[in-house]
Design brief:
The chain is of the alpha/beta class. Helix content is 45%, strand content 13%. It has helices at residues 7-16, 20-33, 51-66, 84-97, 108-113, 120-137, 149-162, 192-201, 227-241, 245-252, and strands at residues 42-47, 72-79, 101-105, 142-144, 172-174, 182-184, 263-266, 269-272. Strands 3-2-1-4-6-5 form a 6-stranded mixed β-sheet, sandwiched between helices. Helix 7 (149-162) crosses helix 9.
Amino acid sequence: MKRELTKTQLIEQSIIKKFRKELWNPFIKGVKHYEQIKNGDRVAVCISGGKDSMLLAKLMQQLQRHSDVPFELVFLVMDPGYNQENIERVKSNAEILGIPITIFCTDIFDTVAGLGGSPCYLCARMRRGHLYKNAKELGCNKIALGHHFNDVIETTLMGMLYGAQIQAMLPKLHSTNFSGMQLIRPLYAVREKGITAWRDYNGLQFIQCACRFTEYCTTDPDSGGSKRQEVKRLLKRLAKDDPEIESHIFKSIHNVKLDTLPGYKKGGVQYSFLDGYDD
């Protein structure tokens, strides 16, 4: 008699089989192409409770099981001050997915609550710092975040349209404050629509908006007034005329022609095309 698969096993099977093209293949391609995992690494997979970080955790777990390169994993959940419902949702989903999480608590939400204006920038920096610190204390040399393909191209456009700069999001980088630590983004080549499809196919319900300041916000990705949502809507409109528009943007940051730019920065130093122009 055929053995019935558990919920966890069905979810794992969906990644490898049904969503192989959308999830597993681009994940593996990105990890290998950008050399994100090396022999002996101990990686802290940082889980916020949303669909992206939860899928990342499952993909990394699957990779560890099948990889020829030995490495270790820690599944790290930081509670910056979530309400009880959200933290219980994180625990429940981790159990469903078969992910052994380690939770640590901070008072980040309380710290930034009285600052006024938008606390997002400071909150993000504090969260990153706490993740590095706790990961290092657990013996990790890398942290893995759930930024995906769409985050990359949206960040690139936001920098151009609202920041007056061409600035992308790297697939990995060295920490400037925590010696020996690196940040990796294994979902770099994975598109958000694939993640959403996987979530819905498996009937999973992840945290949508866990920030205390916006936890009652809409979950509709086509509404809201943030700059990122504006860029999402812009890309959606452009894709109606050219379905390859997102791929073109992604490829463009891998194919920058510096000799056509009037100016650029490297290592914090500003350079101009006039430097050595008459040489």
